[in-house]
Amino acid sequence: MIESARIQLNRWQQAAVALGSAVGALVDPRRADLIAALGETTGKPAFERVLERMKRSPEGRAVLLERPRVISAKVGHAWELPANTFGAAYARFMGSRNFSPDDRPPVRFMDTDELAYVAMRAREVHDFWHTLFDLPTNLIGESALKVIEFEQMYLPMCLMSVVGGTARFSEKQRRLFFQSYFPWAIRAGMQCTNLMCVYYEKHFHEELDDVRRKWGIIPAPKQDIA
């Protein structure tokens, strides 16, 4: 599926897609396809570094070998797990927002199948990270998670998303973000484990608090960020 969706671009075409995607995403931040294209066309060196880190990690190598997908057919059992587990917390997060794990756009602009999988994995574990860090999906929550994602993967798109997101903040939101959520996200991203090397699906049955401790996760501050 990943291989069949890919489109080979030369450098000029990549630059054109990146520029067009950046402009389009600023105009309409809800366009997940444009944000995905921006991440792929500007993020190859970052994804290559992520791939090398995964190869050096036993659990990361298992992910690369088995290539699990975060789609309904593979993670649907999370909805049947006990309430205190990581899997059930993920199911509640998805259900409360009427999200489907099948809604992620395909990877189109990676050079190899291996890099395409890493890019898809980064896209698909995003909701696991929301669950683990207890971050909502509003503007401040997404911007804070992009700070953590940048620390974890050094993707230029994450940094651009933070800049674009904060530009749309109200004065109250901007003050709250930079006084509370930004410093928390810096600390949280530095303290936690290498999150791309985690085989999340094999930990669904474990208690949420236990996996947070094991992976060094600091949940987000509890403040009104509406």
Give the secondary structure arrangement, pairings included.
Elements: H1 2-5, H2 11-27, H3 32-42, H4 44-56, H5 58-66, H6 72-75, H7 86-96, H8 113-124, H9 126-133, H10 139-153, H11 156-167, H12 171-191, H13 208-215
Walkthrough of the structure:
The chain is mostly helical and 226 residues long. It has one domain (2-215). Helices cover 64% and strands 0% of the residues. The protein is built from 13 helices and no strands. The protein has helices at residues 2-5, 11-27, 32-42, 44-56, 58-66, 72-75, 86-96, 113-124, 126-133, 139-153, 156-167, 171-191, 208-215. Helix 2 (11-27) packs antiparallel against helix 3 (32-42), helix 4 packs across helix 8 (113-124) and helix 7 (86-96) packs across helix 9 (126-133). It is globular. The termini are far apart. Mean pLDDT is 86; it is low at 15-19 and 21-27.
Q: What's a quick, concise take on this entry?
A:
The protein has 226 residues and is an all-alpha fold.
